[in-house]
Design brief:
Layout lengths: L1 H11 L5 H9 L8 H11 L5 H17 L7 H6 L2 H4 L6 H15 L5 H11 L18 H10 L9 H13 L8 H14 L4 H10 L2 E2 L2 E2 H4 L1 H4 L3
Antiparallel strand pairs: 1-2
């Protein structure tokens, strides 16, 4: 236990200030509190491009052209938005299909977007994610499912390749077996975080921000962007 905590602490010390970003995520306050942008973020992120250099600039472009202009004010309007027009910002059709289907389902839960996302997230079940109305949407995998739950206020982790790589590295350094199964991995990562005195969401964000890009760590390299997202 003390060995594991020491290893986790050594990683977490590299990303001081991460609590603020995680608080914003769990309060559904990312992207200025726009659930439309959070859904678009999840849909863009699902195709695996670099988050900071490819996804973030395109979300900002979508925000200017559609949200700030008043064309897409809420999830209901995102669900009905013209896909061809949307593709002027982001060409991937699959991403827009995912975003529009998520928006359509969430907007049926409540008239207020934040309430809708948080209601869904608090009721969504990790182990039954494939049976969930959002989990059943074509193109939504467990990673996107977990990402949306986190933005909807659930303190958990996403089993994406970076998160798995770093957490499994920590487990092996502590003398434990790595975990490959996605659901079992999420449970294990949550357990590690809580055992070591951190929130699961903090462990998850740490794995992304501790990555080097060029000669700098992402936490440092993208510090000006982090306050928005």
């Amino acid at each position: 236990m003390s060995l594991l905590k020491g290893i986790v602490d050594s990683y977490m010390q590299k990303v001081s200030g991460i609590e603020e970003h995680c608080n914003r995520c769990l309060r559904t306050k990312r992207w200025g509190g726009s659930v439309v942008l959070m859904v678009v973020d999840a849909a863009f992120t699902s195709i695996g491009l670099n988050y900071f250099t490819a996804v973030v600039p395109k979300i900002e472009e979508f925000n200017k052209k559609f949200v700030e202009s008043g064309k897409v004010k809420d999830l209901k309007e995102l669900a009905k938005a013209d896909a061809n027009e949307l593709r002027n910002v982001w060409r991937n059709q699959r991403s827009w299909t995912i975003a529009k289907n998520i928006a359509s389902y969430l907007s049926s839960l409540a008239s207020d977007d934040k309430t809708a996302l948080r209601t869904w997230a608090s009721n969504a079940n990790l182990e039954k994610w494939r049976e969930d109305p959002i989990g059943r949407i074509k193109g939504v995998g467990i990673i996107t499912f977990q990402y949306l739950r986190m933005m909807g206020g659930v303190d958990t982790v996403m089993p994406d390749k970076i998160v798995k790589k770093v957490i499994n590295e920590i487990l092996e350094k502590a003398g434990s077996e790595p975990v490959s199964d996605n659901i079992e991995f999420v449970k294990k990562a949550e357990e590690v975080a809580l055992t070591c005195g951190y929130r699961p969401v903090e462990l998850c964000w740490m794995t992304w921000l501790v990555q080097p890009e060029g000669k700098r760590m992402r936490m440092e390299k993208y510090s000006s962007i982090l306050s928005k997202i």
